[in-house]
Amino acid sequence: MTPILIFDLDGTLIDSAPDLHAAASRMLEAEGEAPLPLATIRSFIGNGIPVLVDRIIAATALSPVDRNRLVAGFLADYQAHATDLTVPYPDVAATLTTLKQAGHALAVCTNKPAAPAHEILTDLGLASFFDDLIGGDSLPSRKPDPEGLLILRDRLGSGPVVYVGDSEVDAQTAQNAGVPFALFTEGYRKSPVGEIPHTVRFSKFNDLPQQVESLLAIAGQA
Ligand SMILES: O=C(O)COP(=O)(O)O
Ligand SMILES: [Mg+2]
Q1: Three-state DSSP class for 44?
Q2: Can you say whether the dihedral through the CA atoms of 62, 65, 71, 74 is positive or negative?
Q3: Residues with CB under 6 A from ligand 1
Q4: How many angstroms is it from 217 CA to the middle of ligand 2?
Q5: Gap between the Cα atoms of 28 and 89, Å rounded
Q6: Predicted complex ipTM exceeds 0.85
Q7: Where is the active site (predicted)?
Q8: Is omega for the bond preceding 50 within 30 degrees of 0, making it cis?
Q9: Whole-prediction pTM
Q10: 166 assigned to a ligand binding site
């Protein structure tokens, strides 16, 4: 059976925090609020854009009454500027090429809405590597619910699965799905590496292909 490698998006394949920060700054300026620092916005990423906006509201004088309008406005503005400043992490394309050539199916499971996720992958020249994608608005549930990973496994032939991600949410998702987890240590995690459950970890994408075979052996036994 074809092994299936599923990747998180923000903070794993791409450094999207600068564009999310820029969209947050434009929203705050339009509402008469001061911008929040990049590090603050980065710490708000991982549970989807509606939750990101909720966290911005909680950190400022914005009113929760305006939440739906702010989420809709943020989404529209972000989608129009999603790759102004966003780049893949170093060696992502080369690593995906290696993994694809090894015969693995590749997919994305992100809490970012599917439309901007697709657009970003296309704009950055990464879309053709992936066989499938589930976004934060693709299902009634989102990570850490394991449904996205389990549906991708079913769609891609039920082979052994490895999840690759950067955050506490991703670790929990892998655990909930019962699949091994490769932690990218240079993304948007909030806790020390030792406090995030992982099967292997890596700080450079070049190191991932070597680790994948051992992970797949574990996934095959699960
Ligand atoms: O919070 C988001 O919008 C998406 O984050 P993820 O790609 O790391 O799941
Ligand atoms: Mg992430």
Answers
A1: coil
A2: negative
A3: 8-11, 45-49, 52, 110-112, 167
A4: 25
A5: 28
A6: yes
A7: 8
A8: no
A9: 0.95
A10: yes
Cα 151 to the chain's mean position, in Å?
17
Question: Residues 77-119: pLDDT tens digits?
Answer: 999 999 999 999 999 999 999 999 999 999 999 999 999 999 9
Rounded distance between C-alpha atoms, residue 200 and residue 194, angstroms = 11
Whole-angstrom CA distances from 97 to 34, 108, 160 are 42, 15, 19
Q: What domains does the chain contain, in order, with CATH numbers?
A: 4-15+86-221 (3.40.50.1000), 17-80 (1.10.150)
Q: Which amino acid is at 206?
A: N
State pLDDT tens for residues 32-73.
999 999 999 999 999 999 999 999 999 999 999 999 999 999
Q: Which residues surround ligand 2, an ion (CB under 5 A)?
A: 8, 10-11, 166-167
Element (H, E) at 30: helix 17-30
Residues 6+ apart with CB under 8 A from 111: 10, 46, 47, 48, 135, 136, 142, 143, 169
